């Protein structure tokens, strides 16, 4: 390193690529973010189309950096996975989500996203048990959202962990369904409680026949397998009507509400109750 013009030390090589530099800087900030309490959970309602009411909320992680502002999860979660930070971060998310959900009305569930890397950690089942114990949240109110990549390679340990969690009463949802490579075979490897239809199909379903038929196929598949189907990314009334017509059980999206801070949950519940 050497002094720059303003007498500050520069720790990077001048030849270093600008992308690498900004990535390193993000990594440094990310490593400190937990201690500095810069994370928060936002919540997006999941709407039960039959009962015509909110069935729960999905917890979505937010990083509020003092200088960078709100860093979207797509920008820091892959990095957190790469640098091995996702285990600690995921534990924080589970604890916070259970703690916050324990103060909600009993009929409301909380859905938490769990990354493939967290599943590779043998302590995941314990981390979840601790979060439930500490918060006294009933296990059936906690739903884990996993993607197909968790099941990639069909690891017997992962399947065993999923069965163990299900036996304890937790619900398991398959997220982003339809975007992977061999979706159907994953439905055979584990009895999911819920399939979340990826928003790319929902978005196109009113315009493209192919997407509409895919949504139809997924809901009918879910029905025959006894799994709930949830349409993600519903933004318009047209899309909502389409999803209802195809027999989706639940819907989630900006049409109902954007993800909101925990302090705004009560008002979100009220506004959806009154239409
Ligand atoms: P996801 O699990 O598929 O979450 C849904 C994403 O779609 C969220 O983005 C949500 O804000 C967005 N969304 C919801 N409704 C609509 C809509 O009507 N239109 C559009 N255009 N978007 C909608 P977000 O919050 O930016 O999260 C992105 C991804 O980051 C999530 O996708 C999930 O994979 C990951 N993520 C978020 N929180 C966590 C977490 O706590 N742990 C882990 N491992 N991953 C997380
Ligand atoms: Ca999700
Ligand atoms: Ca999703
Ligand atoms: Ca996604």
Automatic annotation (TrEMBL):
Whole sequence portion shown:
694 to 968 of 980
Natural source organism = Bradyrhizobium zhanjiangense
Q: What is this protein called?
A: EAL domain-containing protein
Looking at the record, the residues that make up the EAL domain are 23-273
């Amino acid at each position: 390193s050497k002094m720059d013009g303003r007498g500050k030390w520069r720790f990077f090589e001048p030849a270093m690529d600008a992308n690498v530099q900004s990535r390193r800087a993000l990594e440094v900030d990310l490593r400190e973010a937990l201690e500095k309490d810069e994370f928060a959970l936002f919540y997006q309602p999941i709407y039960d189309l039959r009962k015509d009411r909110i069935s729960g909320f999905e917890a979505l992680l937010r990083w509020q950096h003092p200088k960078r502002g709100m860093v979207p999860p797509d920008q820091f979660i892959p990095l957190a996975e790469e640098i091995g930070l996702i285990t600690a971060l995921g534990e924080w998310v589970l604890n916070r989500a259970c703690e916050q959900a324990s103060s909600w009305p009993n009929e409301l569930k909380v859905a938490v996203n769990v990354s493939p890397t967290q599943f590779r950690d043998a302590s995941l089942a314990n981390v979840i048990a601790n979060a439930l114990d500490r918060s006294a949240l009933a296990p059936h109110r906690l739903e884990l959202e996993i993607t197909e990549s968790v099941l990639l390679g069909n690891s017997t340990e992962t399947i065993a962990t999923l069965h163990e969690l299900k036996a304890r009463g937790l619900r398991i949802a398959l997220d982003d369904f339809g975007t992977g490579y061999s979706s159907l075979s994953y439905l055979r490897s584990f009895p999911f409680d819920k399939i979340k239809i990826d928003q790319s199909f929902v978005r196109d379903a009113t315009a493209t026949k192919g997407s509409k038929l895919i949504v139809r196929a997924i809901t009918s598949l879910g029905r025959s397998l006894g799994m709930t189907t949830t349409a993600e990314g519903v933004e318009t009334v047209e899309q909502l009507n389409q999803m209802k017509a195809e027999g989706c059980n639940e819907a989630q999206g900006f049409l109902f509400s954007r993800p909101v801070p925990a302090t705004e949950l009560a008002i979100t519940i009220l506004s959806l109750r009154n239409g």
